[in-house]
Design brief:
Layout (H helix, E strand, L loop, with lengths): L1 H21 L1 E8 L2 E2 L2 E2 L6 H18 L5 E2 L7 E7 L4 H8 L15 E7 L7 E7 L2 H14 L19 E6 L1 E2 L7 E6 L6 H9 L8 H13 L4 E3 L13 H9 L3 E2 L11 H4 L2 H4 L4 H19 L6 E3 L16 H23 L8 E3 L4 H7 L9 E5 L21 E6 L17 H13 L2 E10 L5 H12 L8 H15 L1 H20 L29 H22 L5 H33 L4 H26 L34 E6 L21 E2 L6 E8 L3 E8 L4 E3 L3 E5 L6 E8 L9 E2 L16 E10 L2 E10 L2 E2 L8 E2 L4 E5 L5 E3 L5 E6 L6 E6 L9 H7 L2 E8 L3 E9 L12 E6 L5 E4 L7 H9 L2 E9 L3 E9 L5 E8 L17
Parallel strand pairs: 3-4, 3-5, 5-7, 10-11, 10-17, 11-12, 13-14, 14-15, 15-16, 16-17, 19-27, 25-28, 29-34
Antiparallel strand pairs: 1-2, 1-8, 6-7, 6-9, 18-20, 20-24, 21-23, 21-26, 22-24, 26-27, 30-40, 31-34, 32-33, 33-40, 34-39, 35-38, 35-40, 36-37, 36-39
Organism: Formosa undariae
Keywords: Hydrolase
GO molecular function: hydrolase activity
Length: about 1000
């Protein structure tokens, strides 16, 4: 009997496999003298014809062969038949005859099917049939064929030239697309003054002198290729309003693009430039409502027959708060409610439709969020479009009651922003995994109706635009954070070939990691509103291996990798690589190096080092490299196709200027200078037993390394030599020549320890005591030194190593104290335990180390009571070992997210050993100073005091209080942590 059952199962599997195989057919687009054509119905939507023509253009760009778009049947034996249910007579005939089944997706939103049908029409042997549930579904289906041929959505906007081949054959698997995850998906063209508008006016569309119908046609084609359906048009005063060009709305309708407007543009209006004070009076609803309502009526009347999303509510002019008579929240809420009531009345009267059938959005942005939180009554059918805080962190999302609203919810998200504390308008510096995390969270809380990305000028936001819209199309492909890396790998392979995809992805991830630590546009430590001059960097140059130099070297590695990759990219993709990877990475690298070298210039100048001049030169060279690359982008790339699209200094802010530099001019005779890690000033070689002649203590458990800078004091040439006094002291270089005239007046020497050769300390069960390693009992320290010799003079630098043989640390795996602190990357827990509802999960690709850990699911119940925290909440445990004891500060660095709604915060709880959990809250309010600091460094740091009751082994415990809290790094400070921008590298026992 068992054999019969197994045989039946095997037979069933074979039948299923055979059925699957039978649904895959090879279809020839062009091959030698054979080519197909596209048959559409002239009565179908215009976007179907547009999509068909785009497809034929793609075929020509690959094969140099033209295929035709026909509205009448030809004698071709093989065709592509494309159309919309109810809009294509041949498609409808196939449905009625049962040759294609559309029951799965008929009358649904933006779905399509692709399949091969034999003998579909008399005289046609075979047809590749693309059928859409609506006009956009058909267009997406046709353009899916372009994707199957390997054509990038960025073939025009980033010059991703298709690979040439004579034959185009595609393997067609009968399939029906899923419903889009998000109903309305699109972009907001914003802050266009610095690129898109200038490029359109001066280069692409000079006949209009503006972003007009020709430019929008190319934008809309891109949106169709990216399976988007919505535009918020450009709205700065540099651009004439969208509706001032009558053809704009016609082109949008031809491409089936839904037009909406931003939070500051109610009822599809653009008050920045459409409101004329001389004839229309003051833009105040409390004193001039009739004039404003008349303007609303005019706009609704001219857009009533087109697909649109009407933004309800009102803000003031130029993205400012609404002006009302009384300066109190209740009055503002009441007036805003009246505005919305009047707007819906206008919609009803001008469209003759019930307002609850017309797409509307309410965007609680900035002060409007406060009004909404204060009880503003919003009709249930209006979509709530939540916003981020302009820096990538969503301010609020729908609570369980709001999730029941008929209008649903959406998100307006930024990857470009003009405003305080600082703009980021030049490069795409928003971490894509952060964007995934926030949009995934929004999707969890049912924000599925409208997703709009503020992408500035489109360029150089190409990758994040595609990621954003791909998520909106099918969020099921993005369940885990690793999906972003997989997506980028696929994107890189499509754009540049599989050979380089892994290296390009690694390059972009590292570029994103560095930008996450500090965006390039924030590197001057300046702010806006008001604009301030460059400030003092928080990066240390003399602690923790020198943060400035570490960042310089990280970016230099990116520059070299980018240049090597560019040289290896196929010729037909070099221009695309330049736009999508090369310019953004080189731009970020050189803007960083421009400032980082200027910081080194000023720091070394204070020590009167001649190398300060060299660092100033490198800073200026970095600035000139940005100039050179920007000029190439605009004037040479694609023979000037993109001239005026790229501006290297939006708003001419201080961060984009050449930094002020110090200059050292001395006639002193050249002599050897020394500067040590851990000390701000150079070694005073004229003072015996100077306090600054000893490197920080080397710790055998963390395998420490430190630097010594050798440099020329004065001007000229210096010979130097270094001799360790013990065989276990290792130097990266032991002698050399420094010469200021060659620009090589400085050298960094790295000191490491060969621990196999260091004498062991005493064999002890207990740890040494003392809050400073300098106070560690002598039995645990081994002292020696390095003699630096030059021109007959010897300077000795002291070396102390901490190398005890502690039984307690034999075989120990965990973190250890080093220089008075314990540093931990949050993802490197020793143990984790799941809670009743939640668990901890690592997200890859964000945070200071490219990994963070968060509590999921995001809709789990917060746990606040101490006894429940310990019994119900998921916990992370970190084993650590200290050589000191007493009160310590546990510093927690979290991703600065916001609570999704009332009742949920951004909290965790902390305890060392068996102490009671102490709750830590990372939430900020409004645009506070704490919030500004958090978004400038993508980190929220909070500290709690705990007791380490003895030297030895301990456990740090971190519990979830609120789901969604995201931890990046932890620093347990026993009194030794010095000032630094980032926490020191983790002190994990090696």
């Amino acid at each position: 009997m068992l054999k019969k059952i197994l045989l039946l199962v095997i037979c069933s599997q074979v039948i299923v496999l055979n059925a699957q195989k039978s649904t895959i057919s090879e279809f020839i687009i062009v091959d030698g003298d054979v080519s197909t054509s596209i048959l559409i119905d002239k009565n179908d939507a215009k976007v179907v014809q547009i999509a068909a023509e785009i497809f034929t253009k793609d075929v020509f760009n690959i094969s140099n062969k033209k295929i035709s778009v026909n509205t009448k049947k030809t004698n071709d034996s093989q065709i592509i038949l494309a159309g919309t249910i109810g809009g294509n007579s041949w498609i409808d005939a196939l449905i009625s005859k049962g040759k294609i089944d559309v029951s799965q997706f008929k009358d649904q939103w933006e779905r399509y099917a692709i399949q091969v049908v034999e003998n579909p029409i008399k005289g046609v042997d075979k047809a590749l049939v693309v059928v859409g549930s609506d006009r956009r579904g058909t267009a997406y289906g046709i353009l899916e064929l372009s994707r199957m041929m390997g054509v990038s959505p960025w073939e025009w906007w980033a010059d991703v030239t298709p690979d040439k081949r004579e034959s185009i054959k595609i393997a067609v698997e009968n399939k029906v697309s899923k419903s889009p995850s998000v109903k309305y998906r699109g972009v907001f063209l914003n802050d266009e003054d610095w690129g898109l508008q200038r490029w359109a006016a001066l280069n692409f569309e000079p006949e209009t002198g503006d972003i007009g119908p020709k430019t929008y046609a190319k934008v809309f084609e891109l949106l169709l290729r990216l399976r988007a359906n919505t535009i918020w048009p450009a709205m700065h005063s540099s651009t004439k309003p969208f509706y001032s060009y009558p053809n704009n709305k016609l082109v949008a309708d031809d491409y089936a693009i839904v037009v909406g407007t931003s939070h500051a543009e109610p009822m599809l209006s653009n008050f920045n430039t459409e409101w004329k004070h001389a004839t229309m009076g003051e833009y105040r609803y409390d004193t001039n409502a009739e004039t404003i309502k008349n303007f609303f009526k005019k706009r609704v009347k001219e857009t009533a027959d087109f697909e649109g999303i009407y933004t309800t509510g009102m803000r003031g002019e130029h993205d400012s708060p609404m002006i009302v008579g009384e300066d109190d929240t209740d009055s503002q809420v009441q007036l805003l409610e009246q505005v919305i009531t009047d707007q819906r009345s206008i919609l009803k009267s001008e469209t003759k439709k019930n307002p609850n059938t017309i797409p509307q959005a309410f965007v609680p942005y900035k002060e409007v969020l406060k009004y909404y939180q204060s009880g503003l009554k919003l009709p249930e059918d209006i979509t709530l479009v939540w916003t981020d805080d302009n820096y990538g962190y969503i301010r609020q999302l729908s609570n369980p009651e709001e999730q029941k609203r008929a209008g649903g919810a959406g998100v307006y998200y930024h990857t470009s922003y003009w405003g305080r504390p600082h703009d980021y308008l030049w490069l795409n510096s928003t971490n894509p995994v952060l964007m995934w995390e926030e949009m995934s969270k929004a999707y969890t809380f049912q924000s599925k109706d409208i997703w709009i990305l503020n992408c500035g000028d489109i360029k150089p936001h190409e990758y994040n635009i595609e990621l954003f819209l791909d998520m909106a199309w099918d969020m099921s492909d993005f369940d885990k954070s690793t999906a972003v890396k997989n997506h980028m790998m696929d994107w890189s392979a499509r754009e540049f070939g599989a050979t380089s995809a892994k290296d390009i992805t690694a390059l972009m991830f590292e570029n994103n990691r560095l930008a996450y630590i500090r965006r390039p546009e924030f590197m001057a430590w300046s702010q806006v509103e008001p604009v301030t001059k460059e400030g003092e960097t928080e990066l240390t140059q003399f602690h923790y291996n020198d943060e400035v130099s570490t960042r310089i070297n990280s970016y230099q590695s990116l520059v070299e990798t980018t240049e090597d990759l560019y040289n290896a990219i196929p010729e037909n993709r070099k221009d695309a690589f330049y736009q999508l990877v090369y310019y953004p990475v080189i731009g970020a690298s050189k803007l960083n190096q421009k400032w980082l070298y200027s910081f080194k210039n000023k720091f070394t100048a204070k020590q009167n080092r001649e190398s300060a001049n060299y660092f100033g030169k490198l800073s200026k060279e970095s600035y000139l490299r940005i100039e050179k690359e920007t000029d190439y982008y605009n004037t040479t790339l694609k023979n000037g196709k993109w001239n005026h699209i790229m501006t290297m200094s939006p708003r001419f802010l201080p961060v984009f200027a050449q930094p002020s530099l110090a200059y050292v001019n001395t006639e002193n005779k050249a002599s050897l200078g020394l500067a040590l890690e851990g000390y701000q000033m150079e070694v005073n070689q004229d003072v015996i037993n100077s306090y600054a002649d000893v490197l920080p203590v080397f710790n055998s458990y963390t395998n420490s390394s430190y630097f010594i800078d050798v440099f020329v004091n004065g001007e000229g040439m210096v010979n130097w030599e270094a001799k360790p006094k013990a065989e276990w002291i290792k130097l990266s270089e032991s002698k050399g020549i420094l010469n200021t005239s060659s620009g090589k007046g400085e050298k960094r020497i790295w000191v490491t320890i060969d621990w196999d050769k260091v004498p062991k300390g005493e064999n002890k069960k207990e740890a040494p005591l003392g809050h400073d390693f300098q106070l560690i009992p002598p039995s645990y320290k081994v002292n020696s030194g390095i003699d630096f010799m030059s021109d007959g003079k010897t300077t000795t630098i002291g070396i102390s190593v901490f190398n005890p043989k502690l039984e307690a640390l034999k075989g120990y795996k965990g973190f250890v104290e080093d220089k008075g602190f314990v540093s931990i990357n949050a993802e490197h827990y020793t143990r984790k335990k799941e809670g009743l509802e939640a668990h901890w999960e690592i997200f890859e690709g964000m945070g200071y180390t490219n990994k963070v850990i968060t509590a999921l699911p995001r809709n789990a119940t917060p746990i606040l009571k101490a006894d429940e925290i310990k019994t119900k909440s998921p916990v992370l445990e970190y084993d650590f070992y200290t050589f000191n004891f007493g009160e310590v500060a546990v510093n927690l660095q979290a991703v600065p997210t916001h609570a999704p709604h009332a009742g949920i915060g951004v909290r965790c709880a902390v305890a060392i050993d068996d102490a009671e959990p102490v709750i830590v809250d990372f939430q900020t309010s409004g645009r506070s100073e704490a919030w500004k600091e958090n978004v400038l460094k993508n980190a929220s740091v909070q500290s709690v005091n705990q007791i380490v009751n003895k030297a030895g082994k301990h456990t740090l415990k971190i519990w979830m209080v609120d789901p969604g809290v995201i931890l990046d790094q932890v620093l347990i400070d026993l009194g030794g942590w010095k000032q630094s921008y980032s926490f020191p590298k983790q002190t994990l026992k090696e």
